[in-house]
Amino acid sequence: MNKNGPVIVAMLGAYKKAPRVIQRLIAGAYKLSPGQLANDIPINLRVGEGFTLPHAVGIVIDADTTIGDRVSILQNVTIGKRAPGEAAPTLCDGVAIGAGAVIIGDITLGEGCAVGANAVVTKSVPPGYVAVGVPAVNRPRQS
């Protein structure tokens, strides 16, 4: 049973008494539950304006992460700490993160930088640079 299972079970009493349309809506919500989409995005996450998740599947973000304005994160991205007690990453304005990237540690992704698909970023990325590879290497962004 996924982590929303107990909530659904608690709703069964109301579910059985609800009209058929409401029953179908509840069943549909269960099918699209976070357990199946596998996202872990905390409700208290500090996020700027224009934050987008074009393909919101498999995204894990630590609650202490700070995300600036106009940040875009694709699918299967992990952003978090290396160890308990360490600070989480900071994503400045205009950052773009490719699919499958891992961003860990007390690092800063500078304004307008990008992270390539499947890159593992463990060091800060200067503004306007691109981080690519495993482990990620910072390269100047080409116009």
Q: Could you give a quick summary of the protein structure above?
A:
By secondary structure, this protein is an alpha/beta fold.
Description:
The chain is α/β, with parallel strands linked by helices and 143 residues long. It has two domains: 5-37; 39-138, 3 Solenoid (UDP N-Acetylglucosamine Acyltransferase, domain 1). Helix content is 20%, strand content 22%. The protein is built from four helices and 13 strands. It has helices at 5-10, 12-17, 20-31, 34-37, and strands at 46-47, 60-61, 66-67, 72-73, 78-80, 90-91, 96-97, 102-104, 108-109, 114-115, 120-121, 129-132, 137-140. The strands form three sheets. It has a five-stranded mixed β-sheet, with no helix packed on it. The chain has a four-stranded parallel β-sheet with strand order 1-3-6-9, with no helix packed on it. A hairpin with a 4-residue loop joins strand 12 and strand 13 (137-140). The protein is globular.
